[in-house]
Write a structure and sequence with these properties.
By secondary structure, the protein is of the alpha+beta class. Helices cover 49% and strands 7% of the residues.
Length: 275
């Protein structure tokens, strides 16, 4: 297929006539690939298309409308040039010849260097309180990961997955209470802030669980009593950044299933496109 210029909304048509390629889904570069050129005055993002942590920084860039070049990295076959310049993880923001790793660090950097629109609260106390919310909700990954991921050399039974989901829901009760106490559509009030975008990627995966789990999917549905959480999810789905970059529940479930079966990044994206 033909690769268009980065960050342009282009699709590529294969010989079959099926269009599947989008601006975020360039092939993941791997060992033996050449290091892409970088404009020092423009942001470059080392990404993995369906990594929840890399998604945090992609959403930050989109929410702030910062032009950037996207470079997808195969984390199973990492290019030598990537390993030589980074900690071997994504996301990495490259700016002015410097490499800024880790989603929270990189996102905070972007919010300071490109101040409008501001995503972090200007009040240090509120920023600290928002960061506490991020840390609390990040803990759900230890329950979410064993449900939707294929863990090497480990079999997670259905009983264990159900227990993980029960623990996940218990953790989300604290987020429900936080949203209730704030009394606004987003953690930031009438518009999303950094905390909203840092937490959001987990929920794309949670929403995909009922489809991913097939015949027992009804056991992996978020309880209706988490009404403030459901309203927040709906509000986040309406934001421009999530609409541009996020995954629907069906696509998240489908690409996860394909990836768990094949281990192919680009195959999973291709086969799940259009969902």
């Amino acid at each position: 297929f033909k690769v268009g210029r980065k960050n342009e909304a282009v699709v590529s048509t294969q010989s079959t006539g099926v269009q599947w390629y989008t601006m975020w889904e360039e092939p993941h570069l791997e060992q033996g690939s050449e290091k892409p050129a970088c404009d020092e005055n423009k942001i470059q993002l080392f990404n993995m298309r369906f990594c929840p942590f890399a998604e945090r920084t992609a959403l930050t860039l989109l929410a702030k409308k910062i032009p950037f070049d996207n470079v997808n990295i195969n984390l199973k076959k990492k290019p030598d040039w990537f390993l030589a310049s980074t900690m071997g993880k994504v996301p990495v923001v490259v700016h002015k010849g410097k490499y800024i790793p880790e989603s929270l660090i990189a996102s905070d950097y972007l919010d300071e260097v490109f101040p409008e629109p501001k995503l972090n609260p200007s009040d240090p106390l509120q920023k600290a309180l928002d960061r506490v919310v991020i840390e609390k909700q990040s803990a759900i990954m230890r329950h979410l990961y064993p449900i939707f991921s294929k863990i090497p050399n480990q079999i997670v039974t259905m009983e264990e997955k159900l227990q993980h989901f029960e623990n996940l829901v218990a953790q989300l009760e604290t987020f429900e209470e936080e949203l209730k106490n704030r009394g606004t559509p987003y953690l930031g009030g009438q518009s999303p802030v950094m905390a909203d975008y840092m937490i959001w990627p987990y929920f794309e995966r949670i929403e995909g669980l009922p489809i991913l789990m097939g015949d027992v999917g009804d056991k992996f549905v978020l309880p209706a009593h988490l009404e403030h959480l459901h309203a927040w999810i709906k509000a986040m789905r309406s934001t421009d950044a999530v609409k541009a970059y996020g995954f629907s529940p069906k696509r998240m479930a489908t690409l996860t299933k394909i990836y768990n079966e094949t281990g192919g990044y680009d195959d999973a994206l291709k086969e799940s496109s259009g969902m």
